[in-house]
Design brief:
- The chain contains 11 helices and 41 strands.
- With about 675 residues, the protein is of the alpha+beta class.
- The strands form 6 sheets. It has a 28-stranded mixed sheet that branches. Strands 2-1-5 form a 3-stranded antiparallel sheet.
- The chain is elongated and about 115 Å long.
């Protein structure tokens, strides 16, 4: 009695079987993990979820907490239950001492041991089968005769009388052996599919386990590198050391936990497949055709969807264990500790110069091609496909298609600018898509008045703080797909990092309202009202005060710092040389070919492909850093405060060389360090 009560308590209310991998909902009710997951799947899209027992509502997919205690009780109960097959079927003729039967005769309705089987009638009407106590189930319920045929129309077993005088008269019949043979063939096909799927699932489990091992090994390697680096920097870097180590271990742990959960789910599904396979193998090997035919249809045994599992599995293998982003934080240590020469990935800023052929005719480019100023005097440059005809934008001469690079921009002379990066193929015309950050081809850091933001694909992210140092850095990691913006305060402060898969080389790009500069040697750009009368070439930005660097980067790791203290309206970033030169799409960050860090008044944001992400804080210093890791496909922006603060990282697959780009709404910004631009 107690055993029956315990069994009732251990049964899942969904499948009515003993719990398998039981989990608990917030309401306290328990279910098999597979059962409750299936129920929740059916409720998806209905506006919420509910417990099948108490109907308690959940707004989101409820957390399934594994009930280890209940799982152990269920396993112990199953192992303690007596095996029902041990009782067996006894020989009908062995009255004095019961002997287990080895076969049953359907004609005689008796079960026989080995001894009595030898003397049993061997006539064809004496049909033998495995020992059974339910001989009546093998006879026709109407005529009380042995079931010998299978009606294919009604899909049922019938006796001889049913075929002659019963309701199955005239129907197409098959012998039990013929019908069961066909069903066995069908089950063998299903069995083969299940075996293949189980093998595939085992392979996925192994690949995830191997990938997890590599992630843990890489995390351990990064941890060792970080430990050595911080040991050299001694006590004044202790806090930063803990933060970086925590980032590594945290990412590795999150990846490992996620993979462990998926492995557990796959193991449960694999066990379910094994159970189905074992069941089908037993049916395929069973000699009794009637049992095979009376088994419920097995066609749905193979209908198990695992598309989501495959997508999650592939996603883990491609990007689940990426802990390489920590390397970008390590790179900025050289700006935090003065006098300490830290070499991690890159050693110097790019020497970027502005490409006059891309500059808008309202942008005045200095002789050294390092500064851009907004002017009302048309520069009369030739109208070429490379030029931005609408917005005051300009791209760098250089582009980057690999590696890590950075350059600094002095934006102190302007309160309206965009600096960033863009593809060479960025739109040059139009009122929106050509602006850095307003398209999928550009990523920009924007200042508009006192507002700073980053922008990409016309998505704006406001930055939480002003850039107080007037200098920003743009960092590109091409392979990592990251464009980062930094404020070059003391210590350097990251602003934002865009992450993308870069498909083109990236150019630095400037959008200027007043003055913006790269450095003293073609390093600065200033907004001016005096038209510079430059020829209108395809490379020039026609409508927006933007300028690109002369240099472009198609590999490696690079960074550069920008002094943005002279402006509260600017964009710094990177772009492809194919960035649009006319129209709104030509602004850095307003297209797919550029990535920008933007200040607009007191609002900071990053932008790419017109998608703007506001940054949560002001840039406390007037210097930002742009980091490029071409191979990693990363452009990152940092605030060069103390310590350096990451602002945003763009990740992309770069397809063109990348130029540094500046956009100045007013005032002046200047590239003041980093890779030679």
């Amino acid at each position: 009695m107690a055993s029956a009560y315990l069994r009732a308590e251990l049964e899942c209310s969904i499948c009515l079987n003993i719990y398998t991998a039981p989990v608990t909902l917030k309401c306290g009710h328990n279910f098999c993990r597979v059962c409750i997951a299936r129920v929740m799947d059916t409720q998806e899209g209905s506006g919420g979820y509910s417990c099948p027992e108490c109907r308690q509502k959940f707004q989101e997919w409820p957390a399934l907490h594994r009930n280890i205690t209940l799982n152990n009780i269920a396993k112990n109960f199953l192992s303690a239950e007596p095996d029902q097959e041990e009782s067996g079927v006894l020989c009908t003729h062995c009255v004095d001492s019961p002997v287990p039967a080895v076969i049953s005769c359907l004609f005689c309705e008796v079960s026989l041991c080995d001894k009595h089987l030898k003397v049993h009638n061997k006539g064809p009407e004496h049909i033998l089968c495995d020992p059974t106590l339910s001989l009546e189930s093998r006879k026709c319920s109407i005529h009380k005769k042995i079931l010998e045929y299978y009606c294919t129309e009604d899909e049922t077993c019938v006796c001889v009388s049913c075929t002659v005088i019963g309701k199955h008269k005239g129907h197409e019949m098959e012998s039990l052996h013929e019908a069961s043979g066909k069903k066995r063939n069908k089950m063998r096909n299903i069995l083969q599919k299940l075996l293949i799927r189980r093998e595939e699932m085992e392979g996925r489990v192994q690949s995830l386990q191997e990938h997890r091992r590599k992630v843990e090994e890489k995390a351990a390697g990064d941890t060792e590198t970080v430990t050595v680096l911080f040991r050299d920097l001694r006590r004044h870097l202790e806090d930063l050391e803990k933060r970086v180590l925590s980032e590594i271990s945290g990412k590795a742990e999150r990846v490992s936990l996620s993979m462990s959960d998926m492995i557990q789910e796959l193991e449960i599904k694999k066990d379910e497949l094994s159970r189905k396979i074992h069941h089908l193998e037993d049916l395929c090997n069973m000699a009794d055709p009637l049992t095979v035919l009376q088994e419920s249809d097995t066609g749905d045994l193979c209908d198990t969807e695992d598309g989501d599992d495959r997508e999650r599995h592939d996603k883990f293998l491609h990007d689940g264990g990426d802990v390489a982003g920590v390397s970008h934080t390590l790179h900025t240590l050289s700006d935090i500790i003065r006098g300490v020469n830290v070499y991690f990935y890159i050693q110097g800023a790019e020497d970027i110069s502005l490409d006059v052929s891309t500059a808008n005719n309202k942008l005045l480019i200095s002789e050294d091609r390092k500064s851009a100023s907004r002017t009302d005097i048309d520069q009369n440059r030739p109208d070429t496909p490379q030029r931005f005809p609408v917005w005051p934008q300009v791209l760098s001469s250089q582009s980057f298609s690999s590696g890590r690079h950075y350059w600094d921009v002095d934006v102190g002379g302007s309160d309206g600018w965009i600096v960033g990066m863009c593809y060479t193929s960025i739109e040059r015309r139009g009122w929106g898509q050509s602006v850095i950050g307003n398209n999928k081809k550009s990523w920009g850091l924007v200042r508009s008045g006192n507002q700073y933001s980053v922008k990409h694909d016309n998505n704006k992210i406001l930055l939480p703080a002003d850039i107080s140092s007037n200098r920003v850095r743009i960092y590109l990691d091409y392979e990592a797909g990251q464009i980062s913006f930094y404020e070059l305060c003391d210590p350097i402060r990251p602003l934002h990092t865009f992450t993308a898969s870069f498909t083109e080389p990236l150019h630095a790009g400037l959008w200027g309202a007043e003055d913006i500069s790269l450095d003293v040697s073609r390093k600065s750009a200033s907004r001016t009202d005096i038209d510079q009368n430059r020829p209108d070439t395809p490379q020039r930005f026609l409508y927006y005060p933007q300028v690109l660097s002369s240099q472009s980067f198609s590999s490696g790791r690079h960074y550069w710092d920008v002094d943005v203290g002279g402006s509260d309206g600017w964009i710094v970033g990177m772009c492809y040389p194919s960035i649009e030169r006319r129209g709104w799409q030509s602004v850095i960050g307003n297209n797919k070919k550029s990535w920008g860090l933007e200040r607009s008044g007191n609002e900071y944001s990053v932008r790419h492909h017109s998608f703007r992400i506001l940054l949560p804080a002001d840039i406390s210093k007037n210097r930002v850093r742009i980091d490029l890791d071409y191979e990693a496909g990363q452009i990152s922006f940092y605030d060069l405060c103390d310590p350096i603060q990451p602002l945003h990282t763009f990740t992309a697959s770069f397809t063109e060389p990348l130029h540094a780009g500046l956009c100045v709404w007013k005032g002046c910004i200047k590239i003041c360090g980093g890779d030679q631009m």
